[in-house]
Amino acid sequence: MRLRLLTFLSVITITISAAFLLPYTIDLDAQRDQIAKQISRDTGMDVTLQGPIGLRILPKPALKFENVLTTKSERSTGQNISLVIAAGTVEMGVSLMALLDGELKVRDVALGQAKVRVVGLEDASGIMRALRLFPAPVVMFSDLQLVLTQSEGAALRFDHLNGKISADATDGPFRITLNRQGRGIQPLSLDARIGSFVTNRLPLRLVARAGTSSVVKFNGFLNQRPNAMVEGEVSIIDRRLLPEFLAKMALQTAHLPSQAASMNGLIQITQTGFFADNLEIGGLNTKFQSQLRGLWPKVKGRAVQVSARLSADEIDLDLIQPFPSINASHAALTSGPIMPPMERADEQHDQLASLLPAIDIDARVLAGRFSLGEEVGRNLVIDFATLKKGIRLNRLSADLPFNSSILAAAEITGLGRAVRLSGDMAVRSSDSLAALLWLGTQFGYDLSFVAETVDEPSVQRTGLVTEFAVGPEAIRLTGLAGRIGDEQIELDLVMSRTEALSGHLDLRLSQANLAILGLMEDMKLSRQSPFFPLDLPVRKWLETVLNPTRDIRDFSFTLRSNDVRAEDIKLGPMVVSGRIAGDRLDLRRLQFENYLDSRVALTGTLHHDGQAVDGSLDVTLDTLDASQILAPLKTGLKPFFFDISGPLALTSTWLLTARDHPDWPNAIITGSGRAGELKVDFDMRTPVRDFVLDAAGTRFELALKGSGSELSARLGLPIPRTSDEEAVLSLSSDAQPGSVSVLEAGLTLNDDQFSLSGAMRPGPTGRRVEGRLIGSGANILPYLGLVRDTGDGVAFDGDAQIVLRQDGISFSNIDLGLGAGRLTGEGAVDFTALRSNLTANMLIDALDLDPFLPHFSSQTGWSENEIAWGMLGASDANLQIRLANAAFLGLPIDDLRANIRLVEGVLEAPDIIADFLGGQVEFDLQAEGGELTPSFTAAGNFTTLQPEALLTLAYDRAIIRAPMSGNFALQGRGKSTRDIFASLAGAAQVEVLEGSFNLFNMRQLRNAVANSEGGSQNVLPEALFWQGQEYFNRGLGVFTFRDGRLETSAAELLRSNDRVLGKIGGQFDFVERRVSARAQFYDAAGSDMLTIDMSDTIDAPAFNVLWSAALQ
User: Fold this and answer.
1) How far is residue 816's CA from residue 754's CA, in Å, rounded to a whole number?
2) How far lies 314's CA from each of 254, 374, 383, 439, in Å?
3) Are 627 and 634 spatial neighbours (Cβ–Cβ below 8 Å)?
4) Residue finishing a domain among 167, 199, 227
C-alpha cells in the first residue's frame, strides 16, 4: 500500500515538475513564424507576432504573446468589413495534446491592452458579420480600446472596455458581455445574446446601459430569409434624449423625474425601415399612445425618414421651462451652445451620434388637455419636422386658457441659447387681459402694469395675426394686424432679451381711446383744458412704465392713430414717438392734429424716481378757433366773461421739478403766444402736477396786451376802440392753505383803469371771489352801450365791494362818481336761471341825464348805427332807481322814482313818478331789445307843469307863463335811433290853465306899428316884440304823432270871454328836427290881427310876421 502511494506521488511530482520545467525547455521563439502561420491558418486572420512567445501549462495550457497584430477582412454584398487587433499581451488557451502533436487548437483568447479597430460598419448587418471575424469561440478582453469606423472615416472610440465575446461556433450562437467603468468616464454595460446564423429565425436579446441615464432592452427574433427582418419587443428608458432635444430650443425640464423618456412596445425592423403601430412613449410624466414609422434611405448619405404620431389625454407643459437667466449677456449668447443642467455626456456619446445615420423626423403630438402656467388648455396640436439645422413647426394650435386660442407655423434653428424661432401666428381671445398677463408670466415678463392702466371691458375681445421671430437677442413682431376690442391695430415690435430690455414699437391704431389705454382712470371730462395732458392722469402710467426698480430698459416707440378719443372727447389724429430709457421718457413728438379744432404738440423728457415724475415738456397749441379748446377755461373763470373765439397760438414750457431742484415740488409752466391780435403771456407755479389754480402754493399770472378794440370786444364791453389804442388785461392769483387764493386783476383801456383786489375761496356753489372793485375813466357812456360820435362824456370814478360766485355776483357799498353826480347802492346778479337776473337798489344824486340821451348832430342828424341794447339782451333785471337833484334838458328833476323790470329783453317800468318843472309827471314805459328789434311804448300824464324854465332855456324868454296838465301816449320801433324817431306814433292832449302870453300886447303893438316908419309894410319888425303881454283864461292842445312827425289837431288860447287869443297849427319833424307852423293872434274883439309863420330847424327857426289891416 505504501509502495503504491509512493509511486503515485512520484508520478504526480514528475508531472508537476514537467509542467513547470517544460515551458523553459522549449524554445518557442524559434518557432515564431511557424506558430504565426499556424494561427493565421486556423483563425483565418493575418497574424503578426512581434514580441516574445511563452507557454504556460498550469492552470491550463496557454500560449502567451506580446505585441501581436492581427487583421481580418470580409467582403459581402459590396461592403468590406475589416478587423484589426493590436494587443500588448495575448493569452491563447490551447489544447496541450494537440500542441504536442504539432497542431494548434485554440480554446479561447484573452486580450490585454489591446486596440481593436472595426472598419466598414455601414449598417446593422455589418455588425453581425463583424462578429464572425473574431478568432476564437471565446474572446475575453480588459482595458480594451474599441474603434468603430465607417468606410468614409466617421469613427467612434470606446476606451477602458472589459468583457467577453463567446460563440458556440463560427455562426453562433453568440453572447456578448461588455462593461466600462472608471473615474471620470460614463459607465457602460452590454449584455447581448444572438442565436445561430445557421437557423432562419434566430433569437435576439439585448440589454444595454449607459450609466444611470439610459437603458435599452430588446427581446425578439432575427428572420434572415426571405428578407432580413428584426421583430420583437423594445423597452427604452433614457434621461438624456428629452433634455438634449429641449436644450436645442433653450428649454429644460422642471425636475429630474420629468427628464426620463421611455418607449415600450413591439417594433419591426426590415430592410426598408422600421415600424411600430402601438408604442407607448413616455415623456414629461405623460404616456403617449404612438405610431412610429421609419424608412431607410435609398441613397447613401441621405437621412432616415421617421414619422410619428403621439397622442395623450393630458400633458403637463409646466414641466418644460426656459433655461435660467434668459436675459443673458452678449458674452453668454456668443459662447456657444450650452449643455443642459444634467449629467454631462462624454465625447463618445457625440461620436456615436456621428456614426449613426442622420434622422429626419416628421411628428404630430396631440393632447386633449394640457396644463400650462397653472392653467388648463385643450386641443393641443404640435406638428413638427426636424431639419438639417433645426425644427420646422408645421402647425401649433391650442385652445389656451382664458377663452383664447393660437394657430402658428414656425421654424426653430440654432442650439441652446442661440436658438431662433420664426414664423406666422394668429391668436384670438375673448378674455384678452387675463390671457396677456398669463402669457407674460410664461415668458418671464411682468405685464401687471397693463392691467393696472387699461380699461378691461374695452380690450377683452382680441384677434391678431402676425409674423414673429424669437431669438437670443430679441423678439420681433412684424406686420401684426387685427382688432383689440373695437379698435383696429397694426404693429411692428422689436424687443430685446438681453440684460437691458430694449427694442422698438411701431403701433398703428384705427381708433385709440385713452380710457382703453388706461389714461382716464381719474379724469373729469367736465374739465377739458388746453393743457389737457396735465389733466390726463398719466402719473400712474408713468410710475409703472418708468419705475426705477424694474429691469434696465431702453425702448423706442412710434404710435399713430387716425382717431384718438378720451372717452367721448375727440382728440383727432395723433402721432407720438419717443424712447423709454431706464427711468426716463424722451418724448420726441406727441401731436394731436385736431384736438377740439386745434393742433397740439409736445416734446420733452420725463423721469420717475419711484415716487414722482419730473422733467421738462415743450407744448405748442395752434387753432383757428379757440372756442372749443378754451371752453373749460371759460367755464372755470365764471362769472367772468371773455370771448375766447378766434385764432390762438401758444408756446409753453412745463418744468416738473425733481427732488434736488430748488423749486421742488413745484411744477413751473411758462408760455406766450397770441390770441388774435392780443399778445398772451402766462406763468404758473404749483406744487401739484395739475392745472389747478386753487391748490395751496399755486401762483398764476396772465397778461393780455394789444388792440383795445379786440380786448374790449372779447370782454363784451360795448365800446369801440381803434386798433392803435393799447389795452392790457392782467390777472394773478396766489393760492393759500385752506383753498383760499389772493387775487389781483387789472384792466387798462386807453385811459380807463379797472382793478380788483380780493380773495378767492371755496363756497357752497363753487369758488367765490370777494374783494374791492375800483374803476375810473373819462367816459362811462360806451360801457352802457351809449356810443356818441360827438359831445362830452361822463367821467366816472368809484369803487364797490364785490362778491363773485359761480351762481352770481353781488355788489355792496357802491360809490361811483358820474360826472358831477354820484351813484350809491347795492345789487346782485343771479346766474342760476337760464338767463342771468340783476337785482339792484340805486340812488343817483345830481346826475345830468342829457349825456345819456340820444344825440342829434347838425351834420349827420340822428345816428343810423344799429342800436346795441346790450343791457336789455344780457340779462333780466329788477331795479329800484331813485334820482335826486338830477338834470334833464338842463332842467332840474327834483325827484324821480322807478321800478324797472326786465325779462327776456322786454323792459317794463310802470308808475314812474318824477317831480319836474314844478309839477309831476307819471308814466308807464315799456321797451324791447336784446334779440328783438328795439322798440318802446310810453303813456302817462302830467299835472301843473310850469313851462317857463323850459321855454327860457330854449328861447331865452318864456313866451307863456301858465301851468299845464295833460296826457300822452307814444311809441317807436327801429334798429337805429333815426329809425326810432322816424317811426314815432301816438297822441297828446295838453290843457293850459290861466296865465299870460308874453310875446306882445295887441294895443301896444298897434300903437307901435302906427308910429313906425314904413307903416305900409307887411312885415313886423322884431324890435316891436316883447313889449307887453296878453292874458288868457285857458288853453287846449290836441296833438298827433305819426311817422316821426308831430301834428296839431287843435291848439288854442282863449281869453276870459272865451274869445280866441291865438291859434297854432302845423307840424314838427322829429327826424330832421325841422318845424313848419303858423300862429294866428286875435284882438279882444276877435279880429285877426297878426300871423307868425315859423319854419326851418327847431334850434334856429326862421320867423315871418305879418299883420292885417286891422292892426293898422
Assistant:
1) 13
2) 17, 14, 17, 20
3) no
4) 167
Question: Which residue among 150, 167, 184 closes a domain?
Answer: 167
Domain holding 1022, by residue range, is 984-1111
Give the chain's domain count. Answer: 2
Q: Which of 907, 758, 880, 746 is nearest to 826 (CA)?
A: 880
Q: Which residues contact 32 (CB under 8 A, 6 or more apart)?
A: 49, 53
Does a structural domain hold residue 701? Answer: no
Cβ partners under 8 Å of residue 215, min gap 6: 207, 208, 209, 235, 236, 237, 238
Contact 872, 815 (CB under 8 A): no
Which position has the grid cell 361811483?
Answer: 816
Residue 678 and residue 711 in contact, taking contact as beta carbons nearer than 8 Å:
yes
d(CA 105, CA 95): 6
| pLDDT, mean of each 10-residue run, the chain (1112 residues) | 51 48 56 74 74 74 79 64 78 71 73 80 57 66 79 69 78 81 76 81 86 84 82 85 71 70 86 86 84 83 84 84 53 41 45 60 89 86 84 88 88 75 88 78 67 66 87 83 80 74 79 62 42 50 60 77 74 84 83 82 83 85 86 65 86 88 87 91 83 77 87 73 78 82 87 89 78 90 69 86 86 92 92 84 90 79 76 77 88 90 87 90 87 87 88 77 92 89 91 85 72 53 72 90 87 84 86 86 78 81 75 58
Please check whether residue 1064 lies inside any domain of the structure: yes
Q: How far apart are CA 302 and CA 898, in angstroms?
A: 116
Going from the C-alpha of 941 to that of each of 850, 876, 911, 977, 1033, the distances in angstroms are 22, 28, 11, 25, 22
d(CA 223, CA 586): 76
Question: Is 549 part of a structural domain of the chain?
Answer: no
Is-contact 92 62, C-beta < 8 A?
A: yes
> What global pTM score does this model have?
0.59
163: which 3 cell numbers? 468583457
3-state secondary structure of 189: strand
651 belongs to a structural domain: no
Which residues fall within 8 angstroms of residue 134, CB to CB, at 6 or more apart? 83, 165, 167
Q: Are 893 and 886 in contact (CB under 8 A)?
A: yes
> Cell 389754480 maps to which residue?
693
As a whole number of angstroms, the distance between CA 591 and CA 523 comes to 20
Distance CA 1035, CA 990 (A): 8
Cell output for 498: 438681453
